[in-house]
Amino acid sequence: MRARRIAETATSGLPLLAALLAGWGAPAAAGGFQSLQEKTTYSLQVLAHDTERGLQEDSLLNPGNRIARLPGGQTEVEPRLDLKLTTEAVVLSVKPRARFEWRRFEDDGPETRLDAWVNQWSLTAYPHQELAVSVGRDLLTWGPSNFRSPSNPIYFENGRNNPIRELLGVDVAQVAWSPAPELSLTLMHVFGDGRGDWQWEKDEGFQALSLLKVDFTADVYVASVNASKRWSDEHPRFGAFGQATVSEALLVYVEAGLRQGTSALYPETLPTPVGGAFVPRHAGDPRLFYSALVGGGYTLDSGHTVYLEYLTNNEGYRWADGVRYFDIAASASDSLASHSPDSALAGQTLGAALGNGLALQGRHYLFLQVQNNPTDSGPTWQLRYSLNLVDGSGQASAYVEWSVLPRLALFGVGVINHGSNRTEFHSLLSQSLLVGAKGYVF
User: Fold this and answer.
1) What percent of the chain has pLDDT over 90?
2) 198 secondary structure, DSSP code
């Protein structure tokens, strides 16, 4: 009897459910879906490109490509999906990525690799008109500089040298308060490196960072200061930038970073089989290290803009350090080639030389960039040149992108390095060429 009653109840409920779906439920669901769709924006972009590299044949740091193991050729396919939901209460943004790589080596067989990750995502709430609270994975870039960003403790390399490559986001929680239209204060806590390495998971490797940033914007001026501290024994770091629009054509700016001590490795002559080692000479040093950039941009009557920047960086090697750096590398390279019992030490020494922790090896740089007017019809292009004023090496690059169809663009990036094998820019690569296409699916 119990089973019969249940069966009867179920039977009598089906028409009611069907009626709800067909009558009231379907329009409600359809209305909700339409409302959600109106609040959502999305796009899918697919990039396919090939890179051919010319390795420095007599490299002291990477003899026979045995240390850095750089592929001579690399083909990549990368879909990039961007999703964004905007409501009155919150904004949700997700940018998943995937990449297939086919790497080709001169002496070894090819390798393939498939990665999938979320490069950026964020959930932002606005509990008050002047207050924004967010958590997610984001790119924390700022500042007007094109060559490097000295005020940024996370993205000193600002990713502007190759517009095709995306920087990796970092896991961050933020609170931004704007008490006045021209003033904003942002408190950030970076708790992960965006690759799954979090502060509370490991004692070594990634170290979390807390940062306070204050931005002020006036009619023709922009100023920003920040103070940050990693969750380690590292001393606080300070950064600042400012820019002024002098006229419709001229923009000038400065950007700088300052910290006490550095964990970078410096070459020391020691009684080792390779004649020296790379040691953290200033790890506990009270000495102040700075990086400062001054520059400006001028827009010509044609609409093309010319940028000129000078950067000084006292964390880099002095001239004598640079000579010692390559002397030790040359000795280690010879030891590695001779297959002596010291080959393992030689390999470790060259690995330390390549991973010395310096974002820039030298102390003085000059940078020039010329780009066309982005509103021009036809191809978009950009020319860049970086010069190490101490060792005389340089890097020239050119980027061009051309929309050949409404949803299809071709692009290319060419790089040429010059200098001897004992210089910064020409120690690993001589040149590289990247060509490809990107299509907008929707």
Assistant:
1) 72
2) B
The count of other CB atoms within 10 Å of the CB of residue 424 is 25
Instruction: Tell me the pTM.
Output: 0.87
Output the CA angle 265-152-395, nearest 5 degrees: 65
Which tokens belong to 97? Answer: 């990525």
Sorted by sequence, the CB contacts under 8 Å of residue 83 that are 6+ apart come out as 40, 41, 42, 93, 94, 95
Task: Check residues 37 and 378 and name the one with the higher pLDDT.
Answer: 378
Task: Report the C-alpha gap between 120 and 82 in whole angstroms.
Answer: 9
Residue 20 pLDDT greater than 50, yes or no: no
Contact between residue 101 and residue 112 where contact means Cβ atoms under 8 Å apart: yes
Q: Per-residue pLDDT tens for 302-319?
A: 999 999 999 999 999 999
**Dist. CA 65–CA 442, nearest whole Å:** 41
- Joined together, the tokens standing for residue 64 give 């026979």
Average pLDDT, the chain: 89
pLDDT digits (tens, 9 = 90+) for 320-332: 999 999 999 999 9
DSSP 366-382: EEEEEE--TTSSS-EEE
What distance, in Å, lies between the first and last C-alpha atoms of the chain? Answer: 58
244-263 burial, b if ≥16 CB within 10 A, otherwise e? eeeeeeebebbbbbbbebbe
Strand partners, 82: 43
**Cα 29 to Cα 24: distance, rounded to the nearest angstrom:** 9
Q: For position 29, what pLDDT does the model report?
A: 65
